[in-house]
Protein: DZF domain-containing protein
Amino acid sequence: MNRGYIPSLMNPPFRPAGYHAAFKRPLPFDQYLCEHFFPRIPEGDDTIVTQALLQRNQALMPTVAEQASINQMVSKVKQILDNVQNTPKKVPNVEIQEIREVGSFKKGIMMTKSNIADLVVILKTLPTVELVMTLGQKIVDELKSEQKEIFGCVSRPYGCEIAGTQAVVRIYVTIIPPNVPLLEPDLHMPAHILQQNMAMIRHSRWFEENGNTSTMKVLVRCLKDMKKRHEGFEKFNVWHIELIAHYAIHHTPNRQPLPLSHAFKRFLQLISTGILLPGSPSLSDPCDRAYPLNSFYEDADTDAICCDAQTLLRILCHGGINAILGNDSKQVNLTAEISIWDSVVTTPLEKAFGVDLEKMEEDFSVNEKA
Structure:
């Protein structure tokens, strides 16, 4: 599996569609779309992979106490925001158009020890940092008046964060589209932040309509956990994980969804064959089709994601599913340390991007002279 490609040293972090028009890779090989020419053969017991995924999903599920505390926190914060929305001038200069639940809480893919819910607040008024903090402090004051618990409000680039002892609610602020031209860069929150926050509503709506299945939720929860544990996946956008997971499950010739074990393997195969690498046709964001997914990454980041996926796929093929998912009690850095699976030595792959070419030439010259 070759990750070789022609890197551009001047690529910006965000590239518009068509940036790599001069160099287009072919579509990544996907055996599930060409079984007529490449029939698949049995590759071990899929039951083992399925059981491992379900076991990890169960371990990642929030506890009953966590679910109760986050539900209670969200209900109270929404109630306070509803009162602000329905009572003009309750908070000076703040007019709320709408409040929407988004993120992992809304999608049903929250994980244990991450008791955080996300709300998007659409304002009619133009948001400044001070205005958002005033709204956040009002929420905190109302919460404190209702129950004896420590609450606090912290300013964040996306809005503010309401933190309690048991749960956290993040408030993402955005505005109604007609007010976007009225924003002043030195006074109000940045327009691109407000646009990103508005996109979270579209993402949650898409997930609710297309990804609201048990297979999808189990797969995404396990992949989000892998993002935390494998260094190369650090820059992997969670929204993109959800999109590629959905593709891996549902994009089949007969329109029949794949079982969990096959979807997990196919996800790693798609990443391994370069679906996010520069120049790849990639996938488009269904909520903004102007941009392919790989246009949101630095070249080195997509290379790291591809590299780790290839290493993990090799380990998966030799029976290391429990180590990949974290079910194994042994703390082994699979993408950085040599490991042995079924008498097969697996050496982590080296990154293809960011190689010091001058140093390589010097080493090559020294070796030649020797």
